[in-house]
Amino acid sequence: MNDSSCSGVPAYVPTHVTRPFDNLADLFLDSVERYKAHTAFTCMGEEISFEKLGILAKNFASFLQADCNIKPQDCVAIMLPNILQYPIVLFGAFLAGARVVNLNPLDKAAAISHELSYSDAKVVIVLENFIHELELIINETKLEKVILTSIGDMFDKNFLDRVKGNSINFYLRFIKKIIPKWHLENFEGVLRYKTALKLGAAKKINLKIIKSKPEDLAFLQYTAGTTGMPKAAMLTHSNILYNLAQASAWVGHLFTPQDCVVSPLPLYHIFSLTANCLLFIYLGADNLLIPNPKDIKSFIKVLKNKQFMGLTGVNTLFNALVNSPEFKNLDFSHLKLVLGGGMSVVPSVAKQWKEVTGIDICQAYGLTEASPAVCINLVDGEFDGTVGYPISSTEVGIFNDEGEKLNQGESGELWVRGPQVMQGYFKNPEATAKTLNADGWLKTGDIALIDPHGKVKIIDRKKDIIIVSGFNVSPGEVEAIISELDGVKEVGVIGVPDEIHGEEVKACVVLKPGFNLSKEEIKNYCHDHLAAYKSPKIIEFYESLPKSNVGKILHRELRGLKT
Q: Looking at residue 421, what is its pLDDT?
């Protein structure tokens, strides 16, 4: 459990925290007032101040109430990448008392239909680039309004700014041709984002800011869960606000208002949503939004023009950045915090990152069901492969399959208990019962141990464990070894059926350009560094590996890859 008296935990970190506000609307309004002259978000060279963000969010809240008939705890869906419209509609929804469901705009129609229908969403805000999949299933949902926005809609400071925004929209629509034609003539509830803001502004005098109760739901946040198909985790205002207080207790002292924090991971994902969008609204920082972090060259070009103090990412992103020559020429002198989460950071990538930037990656651990933060390392500590200490007001334990607590140093399933733990899965009591027990413990589905210093080390996902002749093999352990080889860009390890051993280890490898590493060289290296049963018997090379929207390698999809 959390113990701030542990020798490694800084004295400034409290054992327990209190909730700073009753709801996210209050947090937002407080930050707007305190930091109103400061920049809240920057995207594609366009800035929006806290004061302007407050005005636009209230306009959108007024629109939701007056034109969409949104009542407290109705569901508003957001289907946007990292653009300025996202925080406006997010906080507008909270001001109207709504709950929010975040949708991945890259999802296909079947997933969108499931998530909209399951959540009972009445309104969706969507970037027009992604409208095609939505229109295929719109009649299967309970949607009453579809608000369409374009990339350039927030360029409106003056005439030249509007020309720039219109030019961007024209370029994307007619030159790049990445905005599909859509046909929603039979759906009466379609209107443009700019129109929605104008309607809201005209009626804002009648706006009723709804102060949600702490136990009201703030998010229905979709996740694959600890096992099985995607489910909607029910996260209350209290869950999120406690997690913000917990995160701030560890990293808040590093930042002052107007410091720039880079947000390349999508805000619709819980890691970036809490660790970037919400936390740094609370701290008054300037959030630099990156709409497409996969475009590494453009991403680095943006970083050249900013003195950035913080950056969050996943191993895949860190790896791509440090292997880009242009990245090495950036100015890292202002960088205070690099937070890694979402997946384990590979030691070889962490080492290379330190060599390039001069700062260690601070690895943390969380999951959607915990809002998400559970553990974090020292912000000025050396990377050691662990995910650090439990954050304030948080208990962790290692349990076996019978629910018995194990001793320090023994590996088993990591369980978590604290005020940030979800209320359960929406409309899914069976899955809730399997994941949350009667004592409030959240079963994470991750295999871990607690070392003698009280730090948590994640060994692997419970469901990804490979069993070779009765022995457990951690894919993460094998991946870390193969990643040490010069020439390996990415690797994913899975188990494949074997008549003799039950399963054999297979490594799916992507090489860096210009390298001709052979299968035999990889096998020999593994045999030198791993027990024989852990070494991959099968190695295949690929041009790329399937990843989630935040860059996690999808191990289940590796099984379907063809060479």
A: 98
